[in-house]
Automatic annotation (TrEMBL):
Mg(2+) binds at D396, T398, D965, D969. InterPro entries: ATPase_P-typ_cyto_dom_N, ATPase_P-typ_P_site, ATPase_P-typ_TM_dom_sf, ATPase_P-typ_transduc_dom_A_sf, HAD-like_sf, HAD_sf, P-type_ATPase_IV, P-type_ATPase_N. Residues 464-499 are annotated as: Disordered. It is found in: Endoplasmic reticulum membrane; Membrane. Residues 27-80 form the P-type ATPase N-terminal domain. This is Phospholipid-transporting ATPase. The active site is at D396. Its EC number is 7.6.2.1. Residues 991-1228 form the P-type ATPase C-terminal domain.
Amino acid sequence: GLQACGNRNNKTFRMFFSCVTCSLPSKYYDSNKIKTTKYSILTFVPKNIYEQLHRFANIYFVVIALLNFVPVVNAFQPEVSLIPICVIMAMTAIKDAWEDFRRYKLDKEINHMCCYIYSRKDHAYVEKCWKDVRVGDFVQLQCNETIPADILLLYSSDQNGICHLETANLDGETNLKQRRVVMGFSSQNTSFEPEFFQNTIICEMPNNDLNKFKGYMEQPNHERIGFNIENLLLRGCTIRNTEVAIGIVIYAGHETKAMLNNNGPRYKRSKIERRMNVDIFLCVGLLFTMCLVGSIGHGIWSGSFPEHPPYDVPDENGNFLSPVLSGFYMFLTMIILLQVLIPISLYVSIELVKLGQVFLIHNDIDLYDEEADLPIQCRALNITEDLGQIQYIFSDKTGTLTENKMVFRRCTVDGHEFSHQENAKRLETHKELDLEDEDFAKLQQFTLPQMNIERPATYQRTMRPLRRSQSARAHFQGHTRSRSLGRRDSNQSQVAFSSTIEKDVTPDSRLLRRVREAALRTENLSPFIHMKTATSFTDFFLALAICNTVVVSTTTEPRQRVTVPPPIKPSGITLEKIHQIFQRLKLVSLSQSFSSSQSSSDLGASFSAKNTEEHLATLDCCDNDDSCCDSSRGSVTHGTLPTDFCYEAESPDEAALVYAAQAYSFTLVSRTPEQVTVRLPQGTLLTFDILYTLGFDSVRKRMSVVVRHPLTKEIIVYTKGADSVIMDLLEDPGKERRMKRIKDKTQKHLDYYARDGLRTLCIAKKVGSEDDFQKWANFRQEAEAAIDNRDELLMETAQHLETKLTLLGATGIEDRLQDGVPDTIAALREAGIQIWVLTGDKQETAVNIAYSCKLLDQRDTVFTINTENKETCESLLNLTLEEVRKNYEVENHGGNFLIPGPEFGLVIDGRTLDIILQGGLEERFLELARLCRSVLCCRSTPLQKSIVVKLVRRQLKVMTLSIGDGANDVSMIQAADVGIGISGQEGMQAVMASDFAISRFKHLKKLLLVHGHWCYARLAKMVIYFFYKNVCYVNLLFWYQFFCGFSGNTMIDYWQMIFFNLFFTSLPPLVFGVLDRDVSAETLLSLPELYKNGQNSEIYKLSTFIITMLDAFYQSLVCFFVPYLAYKDSDIDVFSFGNPINTVSLLTIILHQALEMKTWTLFHWITIIGSVVIYLTFSLIYNAVCVACNPPTDPYWIMEKQLSEPAFYLVCLITPAIALLPRFEQSTFLSLHFVNLTYSVASVRYSAPVSQV
């Protein structure tokens, strides 16, 4: 390996250089060996015990067990008292060990994967394990190979220095990403030689930002070459479409960006757990009260004797304990005796139950997405019950409520709007079908006719959806994507953004006519068409085809990038003629000024297809000998382009625009970093030189590409981006009325698109000189090489280029609403859940989607607050709040509950939200928002989303859920009580940060209303039951103290007491917590109002806890005094008295659980009956063999003797009946009340529309 040296203590950057004089590996940085395990063989026992002692309950029981070793206060045999806590901690330790062993196996598998490292000794690349890779090593990677560390790309077999990555293992995105060789290394004609690499590399310290990386390389001549994230190959990604890539390791092992993002599932405390901790302290208070009573009672009992009783033994000095000290010792003894009041096995039981609940949720077939082959993922194992208590939902819009499948719908060019009604009709009736091989074979006969206006109703593409070949996938801890292997091929992945609905675009007949006019009439400089209009239409579609980062790939496996345009037949129009046309267009546009072209049609207008065909009949005929009209249709005899390629885009918007350009015969044919080739409607290929590409970012909200026109040699900047920024970057029209008119009309069209729920993009261009571009390029190169203020300098250069633009037009893209979203939102509303939408989209678009998905109703009164002034904002909030309150007061005093009152919606933009959050107006805002049916926060930043969620959760003290699908939703997801990620088209970053991951928004309905309700009801009842059975059982010992002089003795054998909670009564609540269903799934889905039971915490709250504790006291009194009265004045010994008490208490506690069960399965019967059988079997065996195990009193043959006595059976029959009578009556009453409530809700729900009519 090559040595890397540097300063690890510098916190801002690291520096290293290759050392060709030695072959020692780098010792200054971490190795590439990863270790995600928590323990080793030597550290497991002490470290695991230390972690388990972080739980208050474990500390409590350890202290009690140790206290029992003190002779003065011990209540049991010291060794016996250790058994319960040892069993519980051992079970937890076994679980932790198993989980850690799985991590160890996975680490070992990854560390022993192989790659090729350059060896100075062998002068060649040799195979080594990943764990042996060091910073500074040169690594050779091949196609379909997984990257072992973060590597700076220095060589690629691609002639343009490009390497393609699939980042699915890292962020789940299936589309390919481009990485470039560091500037200065891309023009190598020969293979890279590590021997001659003598540069010093300076880069930033390791961090977890996957999207940013900066540094520079200093050559021996002190020249600096900057590099960024586009030059870095990240660990865990896979090389695609590149034969060989070579780079130097920058970060290794736990310093790689992937590992720094490996935080694992986050631990959250559920609401029930927080409530449970409060109740445990209440139980501790109850325990101390009972112990205080025992100590006082012991003092009174001891003081009642005139002289010391025989059993009161003095110490070696003949002194007796004082009543106070004796009472204190008895207080400690009582704590040991009654310690079981705190349920020791509760925490372990809860963990086991939640594992069972997660298993059932994960295997619910209704939550499985067959199309994506994705089941629900439960990443957080400890908050399943919170799903049943949600009060507020915060949702993203794009990709969450919508498909994130971008479909081209409308466009406006040069101030003329084109409605694409034919395409709209296609989308209304569109149904995606899984085409079999024979279907594709049938489609192969269809090709796009050149210049033919009569296309099929849907522009059917002939390419087949392609799948990318993959290497055997390695499973990476923390940055893998777990997928169930269903009907999809596990070795293949779908091409991103290539569904039929996205690819097929039906052209607008009017726009198609304009395009053909621009293509054909310009040759003769027809006086019937303006030159600026012609160039606008051409430039508009060229911008759609060029201004992107779409990769053109072949259909072969593995797919290779198309870098050379495929051969086509000679077209009717030669390249020389095209060149003359563009030159003449350029001269005319410079020398002439034109009046406004014909006015645009009204929005939504459509021309008759028949008339269109008549107008365009002659346009399909060319005026040269090579192509003429030979039929009534008219077609130009041009060569057809091969269709054996596909487009791979980084975003669905880019793919939609490229497919739209292709529908109008502006076809993207090939792309390299230096050139892009587009096929024009005439069939001619134009290859543009790409001079620079400014990628899209969330700050600029636009992207630009700088090209050199192959014919006019002009430097052209094509820009696309959000209208809010592009409109401000346009050149001042001055006195030119035409440009001002185009801008105003385009803005009107954009507003209409937004109201129609479409995503809008503006398209613009700028023509510059060669000198200006060279000056800008030098400035840009300096900014890229900078270390300090690099981001600011890059932003400044981008702003310098993207100014004084000329508007070409705009597009409207539809993000289709997901299936089932309106029904899901309606059901969640009926369940009493408030739904907010936090989106970065335009206000008009968000409002339209809100109406479409029933978040807002047409009858709602919607208040919109947009302001940049604090005083105005405060005034608007007060006025709106006053108006809403008036309506609520009128509704409350009206007394007519059949007619619903007015509903309100609140729409607010990001700037206003910023004023509210920074100006101290949060309380006013929340007060207003609570009274509104829905709240939409538009143009929100990721930080604002997170702040809003935290504000609502903390100020209103409600249970919140956030759901999103993109990286911009991560902070919002993590801020909520429950975070849900949607594994959609924006990658897996939201999923990786979430507690649960689903593939469709509609799955939220069953996840909350059914599984959420079940999980909450099961766990709440189980926790209450644990407190009940422990208090009930411990009170038996407490009542006995009144008959034994508060001496701390027991009437039940120690082993019986220990096994009572550990084994005899532990299984029924576990089965109950996993399998019980108080209401069927069908009822819960049909009556969402039942979800409010969990929202209001009706099952587990302070009142139910107190009632349960009183019931436990009552049942313990019955279980103690019924046997006491039955055996009163008899001569039975203490264990013969305690055995029937122990038996009837077990039967009572088991039957109490049976009363709580609403569902009976085979598992329920086995655990209920099995618990009694286990108890009787153990008692019979133990009493038979325990001859002298606890002298002077032994339980020998007690159970065998009492089972032969009728009185014992009578006690076992009567006592549970008396003890459970109140509980049975309460259960019956609640069941009848629930049936009536369900009937009432159903009646109101289905009769409400009738009453309103």
